[in-house]
Amino acid sequence: MPPKAIPNGTLDLMPRMHHIFPCLKSTLGLIVGTLIGVTGVASDDAHSTTKAWVDVTASGADSTGHNDASKSIKSALTGCREQCVLFFPPGTYRVSEQVRISISHLKVLGPGARIVSSLANHCSVFTASDQMDISFQGLTLDGDFPAGTGIGNGYGLIELLNCSDVSVSECSFKNTAYDCIFMAGGNRGINVSHSVFDRYFCGIDAISGGTNVQPTGLEFSDNRFHRGNASADTAYSGAIKINGLGTASGKINYNLAGSYVVARNIIDSPGQMGVELNGSCDGAAVSGNIVYGAGFGISIAYSAHVTVTGNSVKHCTSYGLEVAANAWDVTLGSNIVDGKDVSGAGIHGGGAIGISIVGSRKISVTGGAVSGYPVLLYAQDGSGASVTGLSISNVTFHDCSDNGADVYIKHVTDYSVTDCMLYGGTDTYDFLTLDCIDGSNVNGRLTGNTLIGTTTNSGIVIANATNAAHGVDHLLVTGNNTVHALPGIAGMWNEPSPSVLSNIQHVRCYDNVGSGTGSAVLQQVVWDVNGAVSFPYRYYAIERGLIRINAGNGRCSFQLPSASGISGWYTTLEKGDPSANGVDVLPQSGQSIDGLTICVLAAQYKRVTVMSDGANWVVTQSN
């Protein structure tokens, strides 16, 4: 029959009754055994369906904590057969020797029992290797290590090596310089739930066992993690860490996909990592967790087909959410990522990022909100791989905390930002930056977004497109709306030093609107020309928009794209500076502007609107 819950009053009463009536200890053990549905009599039948009951105090284990109980506990364990309960009555048990579990089908039960470790080198209290069907319930495991910086991981108060069907529930782990639960090798079907972790170096640490030995079927849910023993920048520390295969070689072993669930955990100040999935954690689901005060809130690397949904990640000092190192097919959905602390102050400086996506493929960010970081979302190549297939949709970005950007895209192929809300603030920063300093951004769509800003916020900025090999190719900007006072200097983008701009090509910008007092229409484009420069743009059009050219440092020319095949497209060009330097508007070779080969904008605010008739350009309006 299933175990019955022990009333809270029973647990509170038992220690006092043991103290007052020592002679009732065995009787109380039998009573508790009856409450949980097991017998109080040991059975010699290893195949019995009735669980045998072994009370460690019957073997002489001291429950007062004064004497070492190690040998008595191990003696009691040798009396266990399969289908057995190893029972710890309420009390304190001090152990100085490792308890090795060498049988399967064992339940270790101890509501109200506290096991204090004094093992040399902080070795594991319980260790099991190549066993199955083991459960730990109701125990408190105390590493007896003072609060402070942890030593490192690699040991656990509970250690599992190549085990299967193991559950840990309603347990408490505290005061360890190493791991609370350490798993190595091909562990399968491990469930840790409804447990509390306090003062630890690493709460749950699961690693692979080498070539083709991957942990699978891991579920860690409904646990609470408080106060890790390490700071947010202490390497390898954290609450939940799963390190599978593929990390050392830089490859993902997709054929070793397992099942991983990390759900509804509350994680507070865990050290470096809140949740880390690193190395072939394919098919993992991370959902409904609350993470506060980690270095990295949730980190995914070298893994595929991962969903990270409905999590609340607050005040993580490096990255809120991280997708890195050849991750593939990762969905970040409806997460709340906020860098602000309990006082409402955001994170400033230090390269902190709300959502970081580096060197990964097929990444979707949808729903939710990001706030309180210098850069709210950052995507770029790295780890020897590019970011390919990035979709950002229906996300709210607000309260960027420094002079950074809401969304910063660098060297990304096949990207889209659609139907997002981007809010400005008092700091000077960009809503969306396409950075081309070391490479190109290719095949982009910026559609249906709303940008609500102030005079200190820039709209969509193309930066550092000054190298012939680096730029923007194939970009669609349409259906976006700006509300309130985006500055004219960068209504769409500003290229500060356009000495080489032929690499900005195949760009279409149309049907963007601006509203609100002082607002600039999004497809307004400004170039501050440093010297006399020609603009040999290829297949480029700002449809139904404004291109403002500043020629303060010398006469310059702007070459229109070919009019062929784009009948009905029109663009307005304006000279924006007060100098005497003219701006020459030129058609492609063999084409004309109202029958002429040049149109000159000679004075500030001089403007001309030209439209393609499919073969040449026609002036529709000028001043």
Task: Write the SSE topology.
Blueprint: H1 8-20, H2 25-35, E1 52-55, E2 64-68, H3 70-78, E3 84-87, E4 91-95, E5 99-101, E6 106-117, E7 126-129, E8 132-142, E9 156-161, E10 164-169, E11 172-174, E12 179-184, E13 188-193, E14 196-198, E15 202-207, E16 216-221, E17 224-226, E18 238-243, E19 260-263, E20 266-268, E21 273-278, E22 285-287, E23 290-292, E24 296-301, E25 304-309, E26 312-314, E27 319-324, E28 328-333, E29 336-338, E30 353-358, E31 361-366, E32 369-371, E33 375-380, E34 387-393, E35 396-398, E36 405-410, E37 412-418, E38 421-423, E39 429-435, E40 441-447, E41 450-452, E42 457-463, E43 472-478, E44 481-483, E45 494-495, E46 504-510, E47 513-515, E48 525-528, E49 534-536, E50 541-542, E51 546-550, E52 556-559, E53 570-575, E54 583-586, E55 599-601, E56 607-612, E57 617-622
How is this structure best described in words?
The protein has 3 helices and 57 strands. The protein is mainly β. It has a 33-stranded parallel beta sheet that branches. The longest helix has 13 residues, at 8-20. The N and C termini lie far apart (90 Å). 50% of the residues are buried. Mean pLDDT is 78; it is low at 1-49, 247-257, 487-502, 516-524 and 527-541.
